[in-house]
Amino acid sequence: MEIPFTTLPRRDTGLYNAKLGIWLFLASEVMLFGALFSSYILLRVGAMPGAWPHGILNVPVGTVNTLVLICSSVTVVLGWAALKANDFAKYRKIQLVTIACAGMFVCIKSYEYYDKFTHYEVVMKDGRVIDGHLVAKEGGGGVVDGRRQPPEFIVLHGVEFAAELKAAGMAKVPLIERLEKQSGHHLEHKEFRIPWAETKRVQNYGPWHNTYLAIYFTLTGLHALHVIGGALVIGWIWGPGAAMWKTDPERYTNRVEVSGLFWHFVDLVWIFLFPILYLL
Amino acid sequence: MSSNKAHSSHDHHQKGIKIYILVFLALIVGTIITVLAWKIHLPTIFLTVLVALVIASVKASLVAGWFMHLASEQRMIYAILGFTAFFFLGMMFLTVWAMSDVPKPIFP
Amino acid sequence: MSLHAPEHKHSEHAHGHGEGDPHHHDPGFWRGYVFSTDHKVIGIQYGVSSLLFLLFGFGLMLAMRWQIAYPGKPIPIIGGFLEAALGPVAAGGVMTPDLYNAFGAMHGTIMVFLGVVPLGFAAFGNYLVPLQIGAPDMAFPRINMASFWSFLLGGVIMLVSFFIPGGAAQGGWTSYSPLATMIPTNGQTWWIIAMVLIITSSLLGSVNFIATVIQLRAPGMTWMRMPFFTWAQFVTAFILLLAFPPLEAAAVMQLADKVLHTSFYLPTGLMAGGNLVDISGGGSPLLWQHLFWFLAHPEVYVLILPAMGIVSEIIANNSRKPVFGYRSLVYSALAVGFISFIVWAHHMYLTGMGTKISTFFQTTTMIISIPSVIILTCLFLSLWGGSIRFNTAMLFSLAFLPMFGIGGLTGLPLGFNFSDIHLHDSYYVIAHFHYVVAPGSIFALFAGVYHWYPKMTGRRMNELLGKLHFGTSFVFMNLLFFPMFVQGIAGMSRRMSDGGASYMVTEATADVIGRLSKAIIDANIGISTAAFLLGLAQVPFIINFFYSIFAGEKVNSDNPWEATTLEWQTPTPPPHGNFATAIKVYRGPYDYSLPGAARDFVPQNEPVRS
Q: What pTM was computed for the model?
């Protein structure tokens, strides 16, 4: 038994099965990301005045990542075009760039995640707030009664300010910039060696830190999973799956096209993610 | 180009590649404009959002239209995506409307 | 030119029973019956597992009904077992409020997501849609298999969650945040993970259904020649494809709230147990409700459309008439699918929405009742002047019509926001949607089992046991659900583990307005009795189902009901690859009692003689 139209298009629809399948799947993906975009809008519009943070992310890094993804998108379509022109060797070369770009995107994204997870906000018992990147944790540690013990000191490189300043709302301006405006003097970046006993709350910039970071990690995390999944599929077709080029070149080209459609969609999602998360 | 197809198909192919490269360049330019627009701090939030979303939409249309070949696709695909767009917009618009249409408290 | 691949040759009519396509090697037990990619095997796998889930979900409700009727008394028969299996939440065989909440949440989840939807859509759809359109299989057989195993894994996780410390999810099948997030057990986390698997399964399934219907229709099977059942499945697949992803997104965010301590649905200043919760805040509880109901209202039509499809096939076949207004049925189903996406917030009138948006959703809700009524009316009119065969399948289908009618019409007061203020979250709501789903959808699904059983097994189910099953089920269903309308109008709330006893009027509270009278509370006992008897009424069905596999009356033809649609034009049971010869379609789906024809039915693949 053979399923019809796995390779050749059906006459009245002009489509082969997998192409229809991937478009249907992408339709559901539109709804998936659409729901998350709606959530972003609602959370942002519903936030207390001034509570929505700005300028947390590194725009140059994000821009580079955008360009990396755009490159990978054009190479996917060029690779497919090369296959269409029967040039398998050229496809192999071009598609290698796609896979490399995918890897680079994931690496840059991991660096950004790492940067957030080592970025701490420490609220002191006396009301001061110290915001900066982790340099070291000293002393303490270990496990007592099945619970991880905190370190004696936490060393951060960053700035210090009074808690009231942070609470006062002035949206659209990055935190440090706005603090400097409010306090009227330049905030000095330096190293702080903070005794754990004097802290009230130590929290890094993970998804639990505020709703903006929550939706940031959810959207980009889900997107990164799509990148990884797409890269694995494209890589499989490029590598071990390439044997099909000899037995059934038409079907192989279809596979490249279908995986490419998915990849373009991933790129398309990022085109919206970049401005709404990094810039607005 | 080691194409063994007929000459006309070869021309067609070359034209396709040219379009892909043009779209690619447009995407890069779009990205740069987005970042520049953000750098100069437009006067109102509305304008900032508008500029960013308009550029993003143009970039997305380029990707969808030419990389994904939606500019010349089968009717069935248009039908499916038409439904999807309808439901997507319904979800966006109606939730935002519902969240914004909240009665004001009678007592202050 | 045949649209099928030309190398796809068939041998002579493989009219044996279960011989399979001789071009294929015997796939062996594991590939043939367990990890099969054949849509019929997958359909039966879905069918059997969802019937078991239905039985289990019904059992949960029986235990709850005991607690409602006799609050605080040990549950008979299974009480000791519950205590042994679940520990202190069932101490002494008595159902605690926590256990009641867990059973309630799981009853809803299991019945909807693991019972009725997989049975109506995945089981019947998988088995019948490729047969009805003349396709050799689904468009993506391996994805089809993945869909089933993802579903089963989700179901198993759902069941296992009863036994984790703290027990299963207790936040109701709607899992409203912050309640569902703040309950300090892991049941909700398991619920979400299971739901993500189930959602994945239905996404894979719906992509497959749509692609199959669009791509694999046999030559001549134009859109307007498709049986209404296939149309209903097609629309259902679209609803699942586009409505489920928002719930998946919502579930991911609730999982983050639960595991990563984010605040998507948790507002600033949230208190739990008298203490401020240590969260960043800033989230919105209404966001969950919007995303949940964006799925869950279309889901109602996922529950009902396949049932309508089944009923229309059975009514046409047993009244020996074409269905009345085939095109109206099709367009109405499409309209239902469309409008079902823009009515969801009628579940949320009491969340403080403004009047404009309430009016909008009230209007769309009223509009969607129009196509539903058209479908029901067409099915009623199909009976007019027919020479009706009253077999079990037909009886269930006939009962579906008024039962769904009651369910649908009682929904109107809930769709109006002013009457909903009184009825919201009362037993009236329970009665309303159970009339739609239990004597509605489930009756139709029973009808489908009786009707297509001969095609699946080559034997008929026993008619006497079937009629016994129908008669008793019909009576007890109504005794079970109808009094709930009265209870709800009297003001009895849902989700009370003592069945409202603590709100009963006493001498001390005789002049308090809104207390429930003793008669309303005592009705609980009658309702619960009907529920237990309804449970007994399923025994003939269970016996019949298994007995008939081995000892049912053998069918003497491939088309025992003398039906027109393509699934009856295959060998019985259909072999791998379905059709013995390449099939071609010449006519519409319901050519019954054609004037001048030799027989009172003309199959779709019979050429038109000019």
A: 0.93
